[in-house]
Amino acid sequence: MRYHETILQVRFNEIDAYNVAWHGHYVAWMEVGRNDLAGRFGIDVQQLGELGFLGPVVSLEIKYLSPARFKEQIIVRTSLRPGDAATLIFINEIVAVDGRKLATGVTTHAITDLSGVLQYRMPTVIAERVDSMVAWLRSA
Fold first, then answer.
1. Which of 27, 38, 50, 102 has its CA 20 to 30 A from that of 15?
2. Span 68-93, pLDDT tens digits
């Protein structure tokens, strides 16, 4: 399965006292990649809201492998793991341009209505867009 790539650069405000990117920024970079990919298929955060739904994070896993440094270009690779429930499971890999793997992560998003009521089945309008995304990801 292929992935979507988002290229970022580590900014000065993202490094810590150890002169490496602070660990919390990796989560933010995953969010940028996730919204970049999802937006291509009409289901980024804003687009979900316009459809009458939310996708709050209900699970986050991240493994740090190597530090990113100031001004280093990084690539956020994002994919989606299809599931049966009304959830979106995004898979991320953050790598340096030299190919060094910096971190891996997974976020799971429950689909709710705008009042926060959990949806037990994926709403049709979202399912259609997820199907398009999965078809694109598999078309490598």
1. 38
2. 999 999 999 999 998 889 999 999 99
91-100: buried (b, 16+ CB within 10 Å) or exposed (e) per residue? Answer: bbbbbbeeee
Model confidence pLDDT, tens digit, residues 90-115? 999 999 999 999 999 999 999 999 99
Q: Which residues lie below 8 Å from residue 87, measured CB to CB, with a gap of 6+?
A: 58, 108, 109, 110, 111
Q: Which residues pair with 66 in a beta bridge?
A: none
pTM (predicted TM-score): 0.94
How many C-beta atoms lie closer than 10 Å to residue 28's C-beta? Answer: 12
Hunting for tokens 């999965």 — which residue is that? Answer: 134
Given a contact cutoff of 8 angstroms between Cβ atoms, the answer to whether 10 and 70 are in contact is yes
